[in-house]
Design goal:
It is a single chain. With 138 residues, this protein is mainly alpha-helical. The chain is 61% helix and 0% strand. The chain contains seven helices and no strands.
Amino acid sequence: MNAPVLTGQAFWRRAEQAAPLALPDCPCCGRPMPIGRGVLEHALTVAEATWGVSRAAVMGPSRTRPVSMGRALAVWAMRSLGAGLSYEAIARQLGRLHQSSVVALHQKAIAARLTDRQFAQACDRVVFAATAAKGERT
């Protein structure tokens, strides 16, 4: 399937129109519940099941497509779910020396979520796993 390539303003306009994530709200304050700590583990588990990449590969320097997609999934999850981590914090968790690689991976993940069905389904599985772990789903 050849999806049209979105660039510049058209890409970001489409990203802004995407359906928001259905994260559980805190019963006390009504804000999205922070999912935080376990999100990386859930993302790595989904990446292994989807692309067959290990945690060591995602944390390592490889640039192959499956590893890069797994790494982008982890960045997307840590940045997008719950309160979201800063690029610097994500870089530290992934063992990166500079946050610019994390910014690029997040942009890649946003584009892949809009154009790659497999990546979008992997994102949905991470959201489901993270919310189920918090006891929001059975």
